């Protein structure tokens, strides 16, 4: 799909990035989507120590779904074990939101 772009927009330094082709979606990501919503929920932020200790295997690791309170989520399990020294509760909250 093409959209109209003004001469001014074409002159912007970052416009060249909009001309690039989009990357293909890896098959493993398509398989997650086609697998449907997870029946598991994610680790509640109030129980973040389960995640930090690696004791969160009964929770959704990769996928998407809805929590019992109606909150929708997309979960991508990221190994933070190498970064635990600099990880704080506040930064974990940011990771929770950004993922």
What can you tell me about this protein's structure?
The chain is of the alpha+beta class and 99 residues long. The chain is 28% helix and 10% strand. The protein has one domain. It is built from 4 helices and 2 strands, in the order αααββα. The protein has a two-stranded antiparallel ribbon with strand order 1-2.
What topology emerges from the helices and strands here?
Elements: H1 7-10, H2 27-34, H3 48-53, E1 62-66, E2 72-76, H4 89-98
Antiparallel strand pairs: 1-2
| Cα-atom radius of gyration | 19 Å
Structural class: alpha+beta
The overall pLDDT average reads: 76
Q: How is the quaternary structure best described?
A: single chain
Question: Number of DSSP strands?
Answer: 2
Largest sheet: 2 strands, antiparallel
Number of helices: 4
- List the domain count as a whole number: 1
Low-confidence stretches are none
Q: What characteristic shape results from the CA principal axes?
A: elongated
Strand content: 5-15%
C-alpha termini separation: 28 Å
- In which range does the helix fraction lie? 25-40%
Give me the side-by-side strand order of the main sheet.
Answer: 1-2
Order of helices and strands: HHHEEH
């Amino acid at each position: 799909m093409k959209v109209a772009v003004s001469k001014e927009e074409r002159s912007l330094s970052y416009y060249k990035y909009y001309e690039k082709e989009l990357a293909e979606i890896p098959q493993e990501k398509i398989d997650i989507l086609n697998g449907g919503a997870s029946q598991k929920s994610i680790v509640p932020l109030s129980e973040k120590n389960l995640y930090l200790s690696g004791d969160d295997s009964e929770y959704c690791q990769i996928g998407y779904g809805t929590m019992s309170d109606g909150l929708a989520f997309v979960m991508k399990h990221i190994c933070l074990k190498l970064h635990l020294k600099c990880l704080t509760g506040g930064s974990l909250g940011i990771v929770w939101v950004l993922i």
